[in-house]
Amino acid sequence: MFPAEVMFHGHAVCWVLGETLEAARLGAAAVEIDYQELPSLVTIREAIAAGNFLGSDLRLENGNVEVALAAAPQVFQGEFEFAGQEHFYLETNSSLAMIDEGGQVFVQSSTQHPSQTQEIVAKVLGVASHAVTVQCLRMGGAFGGKEMQSHGFAAIAALGTRMTGRPVRVRLNRTQDLTMTGKRHGFHSQWRAGFDDEGRLVALDATLTADGGWSLDMSEPVLARAICHVDNGYWIPNVRVDGRIAKTNKTSQTAFRGFGGPQGMLVVEDLLGRCAPLLGLDAMELRRRNLYKPNQTTPYGQPVRHAERLESCWSGVLDSGEVERRKAEIEGFNATHPLTKRALAMTPVKFGIAFNLAALNQAGALVHVYRDGSVLINHGGTEMGQGLHTKMLQVAATALGVPPARVRLAPTRTDKVPNTSATAASAGADLNGAAIKNACEQIRERLVYVAGGKLGISPQDVRFADGWVRGLTFGGETLTWEEVVSAAYFQRVQLWAAGFHRTEGLHWDAVAMRGEPFKYFAYGVAASEVEVDGFTGAYTLRRVDIVHDVGDSLSPLIDIGQIEGGFVQGAGWLTLEDLRWDESDGPDRGRLATQAASTYKLPSFSEMPEAFNVQLLEKAHEDGSVYGSKAVGEPPLMLAFSVREALRQAAAAFGPPGTSVDLGCPATPEVVYWALEKARAANHLSIDLSRVELSGM
Amino acid sequence: MSTIKVNGQNAMLDGVSVHTTVLDWLRDRGLTGAKEGCAEGECGACSVLVARPGLESATEWTAINACLLSVASLEGQEIVTSEGLGTSNDLHPVQREIAVRGGSQCGFCTPGFVCSMAAEYYRPGRTARAADRHDPEHGPNGFDLNALSGNLCRCTGYRPIRDAAYALGGPEAGDVLAARLSSPPPAPAVTRLAVAGAEFLRPESLDEVLEVLAEQPRARIVAGSTDVGVEVNLRGARDSLVVAVDRLAELREFEIGRNEIKLGAALTLTEIERRLTGRVPLLEQLFPQFASRLIRNGATIGGNLGTGSPIGDTQLALLALDASIVLVSRRGERAVPVADYFTGYRQTLKAPDELIRTVMLPLPLAPFTAFHKIAKRRLNDISSVAVAYALDIEDGLVRRAMIGLGGVAATPLRARATEEALVGRAWTESNVHEAAIVMAAEGTPIDDHRASASYRSAMLGQSLRRFYAEHLAAEGVSV
């Protein structure tokens, strides 16, 4: 917290406490620091050139890449570097700490991971975990940015309260938050891909380098997930992926919705988009041919269960999106509009659900039933806008058979449910829902004896629904939930329970990179249509159609909200949000150049698709998860690849047929403009096959 | 005794400093609905409603960024926050529609959206439109989506918020806030707040302001505070004397005469947009692209000239329109052409004791105009480059050309070389192509986080080509 060496522009060297925000601001402004300037590495390329890496290298290998590439009729190679992303949760990092006369520290923190906040605060204060309680009421957005990054600010507040005995609040303003906290990792990739005569991928050899920033943070698991998702929804029999983490003098990059998955998947989607014209195939057809089919296995050895759902989602989008008709329309439009081009692209998502590290796949809950029949639930998950608490209320109400209004949810606290995992990996509802269900079932198991006794029926025949308790058969006596609860109290039956859940069947060898790290895969397909202006490269997103697999949805309103929000956030990463660092040798080298909302642009209303149709995949029950539901937080973000691929195709449409377009990322209007200018220039060149080679190698 | 009416209750304005924002003041009072998301008027999480003079009714509930305005500048005024619109047991129609449609996820941006949406809900001119009209920016209920252009949401992807906006009906009988529209807003209060060596003044008359300026030329003039507020919040600006001029009648003239249009410097961009009713097509095209509705509700045309930023979009339009600026001081008035006004980066001809009083647009207007803005984001973004055109083309010949450029030099710029390359020549593709090459070399654009210098240059040329494509009809047509 008080570094001897400043590792990045914005690294805090001291903290100033003040009676008012203004006083603290003036105090901080008065601090003078003598820096001794040291050499720095700002870009990922600089770090690679200098051999400056963090953590361990990883390798995933399956089949024989060299043999397959040597035998493949078509082999392409390329390079691709793409930027990270700022979380820009609307609520910046914030913590309020106080200490009572017994020395118990209480921290309210905007954190996805109260248990780890507690551990870090305890470590910083030199006390045991039981002396620290962390509470998170809710967050104003997090997206992974408060899984790890929030802890230090909580510790500063806790240290302040310990030193002064008074409550201390640490709240970053937007520029501080942007400057100080880690972001999605940007990546560099180099690849060779082999295709057979039908356009099927037979081999992929890739090196992924994540820009980790100055400290390790969660870069290793992020990289592991990137490597495990380089296949996205495509079966590639021979794979070798090397991964490493570049150490640069930037913020410590961290978790962000998708946790490396999007970066791995972007590599394969980019290469398919670039290779399709070179293979003489329509990109949509190329992608469909390569989709996983049932009984195929991922490169790390996990069977792709329910692979047929990829095809179901694909054909669902073809239907609901009227894709064939619109493709014909677009062709007609492009033929008559030299200055404007449209394109439609479809991309799939296959995303593994569970923490790669098996130990994290556990959760706890605490359910109290009070004498008046009201229910209070606690669980280890945190609410950041994803609707977790609403789903947890529904699970408790359903499991106990009471109306949702009878259930209240208490803030997430480490003294209620200990040793929790971060609310992350999309697994919040899966894990905590199962723990709540477990607690509720324990209570119900006790209550059936009470109710059975009062109703004069066998306990096995007692049913709870909508606040009523009755027998299995019609016509018998009916009790209210409250009557049963009251009777249970007088019979000295325990009316509360601690629930627990561990996800079964997971195993992962992190060194060999083999095993079955995921409980299941979430699937989805999106079709996006864009229109690109040939004068400027500016574009509009005309229509998006999505079919996504959430299992049996716990709450369609919430799930559709996650799909739409994830999609737009992904589109922001890929097309608009433009993290820029000062890479010059000037005095501001390493400074984040986009450190305010006025320079770092999020999607606004103008980026929303004009038509936005989201459907949940039907008949998608998932065995062994809470009421057949599936995780939804992260996977939809990656449906936005379809937007970037549509932009690539629209840029290509300015050139001769078969133009392969390299598209920078994010594909801002400027980037699209240069891509379409290049395509346009190709109209005037004779086709020279020696030029049909991807740049950069 | 200084007070502000908040949600119908008078609240004392004591204990505030000159630089305390409306947002911080509200939150200190326990009204924590409005939030700080960015502190620079970009995200709208701080949006609140202020009673302001209306056009179609005596008062209009006007949504503004509470993070940018000092609370002292609202003395005697009326504010409504999201708490004043409805409570969780008694939701306002706007809140209800957002809630039931899933328009609120983490909720941090929601109170701001609620206020921006409520302003449009109560706008008297909002009327239902024909259902078949293809206009993605207006709902069937007449809701103008631009009302939400200054609000950011990181969770929802906006679709449910748009659905909520388009589902709104009109205020019901007995709606207190709707009833409030028929009586005038509070008159501006003469304010003098002096705290800890800093002073906030809202004088009663222009003469008083000029007197203050003559004596203390370093006084900070504020109107909507949309620029100064950012300096205060993010860069720690703490001027010792702040003088508010936004409600001075002398600065709020609006007149469409035979030979000119007079725009008072303290008119907000929203007011000008709505009062001009399309009378100046170039400005009509510009306004929706200028920042956001929240900003336009506060920002004044005089303020935009006063900051002298090289990328203030109105300045280019005024260059193309050959406008002049009336500067006033105790020494008298003088009119300065906008073309001469900018002298360097954020430097102008305006003397420290002078105030911008009026902007004059000469009539008749050139018949062919356009405003092209190149930015990363279509709504609420700062221009990478922007171009304003006003051309006179007669019998296929360019008679006159006025082109304003932004984002390519330290000041807004007239594209003199391009104008020369066009004037007196036929309006043909080949001539325009030649001029576009000249235009691409105008200015001295730089590389920055918004765009590269080469893109900026390319966009200048592309802009002229587009202007030609849009005005092919002008070729050979007598106008």
Automatic annotation (TrEMBL), chain A:
<feature type="domain" description="Aldehyde oxidase/xanthine dehydrogenase first molybdopterin binding">
    <location>
        <begin position="59"/>
        <end position="291"/>
    </location>
</feature>
<dbReference type="GO" id="GO:0005506">
    <property type="term" value="F:iron ion binding"/>
</dbReference>
<feature type="domain" description="Aldehyde oxidase/xanthine dehydrogenase second molybdopterin binding">
    <location>
        <begin position="319"/>
        <end position="609"/>
    </location>
</feature>
<comment type="similarity">
    <text>Belongs to the xanthine dehydrogenase family.</text>
</comment>
<keyword id="KW-0560">Oxidoreductase</keyword>
<keyword id="KW-0479">Metal-binding</keyword>
<protein>
    <submittedName>
        <fullName>Xanthine dehydrogenase large subunit</fullName>
        <ecNumber>1.17.1.4</ecNumber>
    </submittedName>
</protein>
<dbReference type="InterPro" id="IPR016208">
    <property type="entry name" value="Ald_Oxase/xanthine_DH-like"/>
</dbReference>
<dbReference type="InterPro" id="IPR037165">
    <property type="entry name" value="AldOxase/xan_DH_Mopterin-bd_sf"/>
</dbReference>
<dbReference type="InterPro" id="IPR036856">
    <property type="entry name" value="Ald_Oxase/Xan_DH_a/b_sf"/>
</dbReference>
<dbReference type="GO" id="GO:0051537">
    <property type="term" value="F:2 iron, 2 sulfur cluster binding"/>
</dbReference>
<dbReference type="GO" id="GO:0004854">
    <property type="term" value="F:xanthine dehydrogenase activity"/>
</dbReference>
<dbReference type="Pfam" id="PF02738">
    <property type="entry name" value="MoCoBD_1"/>
</dbReference>
<keyword id="KW-0411">Iron-sulfur</keyword>
<keyword id="KW-0001">2Fe-2S</keyword>
<dbReference type="Pfam" id="PF20256">
    <property type="entry name" value="MoCoBD_2"/>
</dbReference>
<dbReference type="InterPro" id="IPR008274">
    <property type="entry name" value="AldOxase/xan_DH_MoCoBD1"/>
</dbReference>
<keyword id="KW-0408">Iron</keyword>
<dbReference type="InterPro" id="IPR046867">
    <property type="entry name" value="AldOxase/xan_DH_MoCoBD2"/>
</dbReference>
TrEMBL record, chain B:
<dbReference type="InterPro" id="IPR012675">
    <property type="entry name" value="Beta-grasp_dom_sf"/>
</dbReference>
<dbReference type="GO" id="GO:0046872">
    <property type="term" value="F:metal ion binding"/>
</dbReference>
<feature type="domain" description="FAD-binding PCMH-type">
    <location>
        <begin position="193"/>
        <end position="366"/>
    </location>
</feature>
<dbReference type="InterPro" id="IPR016166">
    <property type="entry name" value="FAD-bd_PCMH"/>
</dbReference>
<keyword id="KW-0408">Iron</keyword>
<feature type="domain" description="2Fe-2S ferredoxin-type">
    <location>
        <begin position="1"/>
        <end position="85"/>
    </location>
</feature>
<dbReference type="InterPro" id="IPR016167">
    <property type="entry name" value="FAD-bd_PCMH_sub1"/>
</dbReference>
<dbReference type="InterPro" id="IPR002888">
    <property type="entry name" value="2Fe-2S-bd"/>
</dbReference>
<dbReference type="GO" id="GO:0004854">
    <property type="term" value="F:xanthine dehydrogenase activity"/>
</dbReference>
<dbReference type="InterPro" id="IPR012175">
    <property type="entry name" value="Xanth_DH_ssu_bac"/>
</dbReference>
<dbReference type="GO" id="GO:0071949">
    <property type="term" value="F:FAD binding"/>
</dbReference>
<dbReference type="InterPro" id="IPR036884">
    <property type="entry name" value="2Fe-2S-bd_dom_sf"/>
</dbReference>
<dbReference type="InterPro" id="IPR006058">
    <property type="entry name" value="2Fe2S_fd_BS"/>
</dbReference>
<dbReference type="InterPro" id="IPR051312">
    <property type="entry name" value="Diverse_Substr_Oxidored"/>
</dbReference>
<dbReference type="InterPro" id="IPR016169">
    <property type="entry name" value="FAD-bd_PCMH_sub2"/>
</dbReference>
<keyword id="KW-0285">Flavoprotein</keyword>
<dbReference type="GO" id="GO:0051537">
    <property type="term" value="F:2 iron, 2 sulfur cluster binding"/>
</dbReference>
<keyword id="KW-0274">FAD</keyword>
<protein>
    <submittedName>
        <fullName>Xanthine dehydrogenase small subunit</fullName>
        <ecNumber>1.17.1.4</ecNumber>
    </submittedName>
</protein>
<dbReference type="InterPro" id="IPR036010">
    <property type="entry name" value="2Fe-2S_ferredoxin-like_sf"/>
</dbReference>
<dbReference type="Pfam" id="PF00111">
    <property type="entry name" value="Fer2"/>
</dbReference>
<dbReference type="Pfam" id="PF01799">
    <property type="entry name" value="Fer2_2"/>
</dbReference>
